[in-house]
Amino acid sequence: MATPHINAEIGAFAKTVLMPGDPLRAKYIAENYLEDAVLVNNVRGVQGYTGYYKGKKVSVMASGMGQPSIGIYSYELFNFFGVEAIIRVGSCGSFHPDLHARDIIVAMGACTNGNYASQYNLPGTFSPIADFDLVRRAAAECEKKGVNYKVGNILSSDMFYDDANSGMIWSKMGVLGVEMESAALYCNAARAGKKALCICTVSDSFIYPEENTTAEERQNSFTQMMEIALELA
After folding, report:
1. Is residue 219 very low, low, confident or very high in pLDDT (cuts 50, 70, 90)?
2. CATH number for the domain including 41?
């Protein structure tokens, strides 16, 4: 079948999909970690691959940037292609002094300054959260690999260039860092009765800006996060 944004057959995707923002990161994961990887979607250049990792069928597809973009792709995967779990493997900025470049945030919850959840007409504020089993297993994989990580809240912001420079205000409430996608992914998973998790590598730090990474490093070198997500899948 085809949706407006994914041109693939039913069964083309595995039950678990890794979802980086960057199509080139999706390509990197497929080429370096998956056996017999096949390109199953390339609408708008948002590359999706399916292959095998340690004998298990796994897919990886990009989400693009922002809540509207991951909202579209995760909705279609959950509701039309039989996907049961999506693990976002992204990059983020860190607000926390104990998190440096290349450390990992496992996003148990996702705050947002966006309006994605308004579509559900709820009589209050919805709190988007990850699947607990995926959180628990991701933390265990981080421990196993000896990775410096924290589990907690992340901010899904609709602004990359924030004129008010409000990011650090969120740290007063214990928010660990900022990215742009997780809240919408968690909303879609909740609505569809599916599973989701965001694992982010710190690419930029509000505390240690001298450690900030390049675009090429974000694309190709965040391998610990990729390996942790693949083990979960």
Report:
1. low
2. 3.40.50.1580
- Count of structural domains, the chain: 1
95 inside domain: yes
Q: Do the domain assignments include residue 182?
A: yes
One DSSP character per residue, the chain reads: -B-SS-B--TTSS-SEEEE-S-HHHHHHHHHHH-EEEEEEE-GGG--EEEEEETTEEEEEE---SSHHHHHHHHHHHHHHS---EEEEEEEEEE--TT--TT-EEEEEEEEESS-GGGGG--SS----B--HHHHHHHHHHHHHHT--EEEEEEEE-S-SS-TT--HHHHHTTT--EEESSHHHHHHHHHHHT-EEEEEEEEEEESS-GGGPPPHHHHHHS-HHHHHHHHHH-
- pLDDT one-digit tens code per residue, 70-123: 999 999 999 999 999 999 999 999 999 999 999 999 999 999 999 999 999 999
Instruction: Give the residue numbers annotated as catalytic, written as ranges.
Output: 204
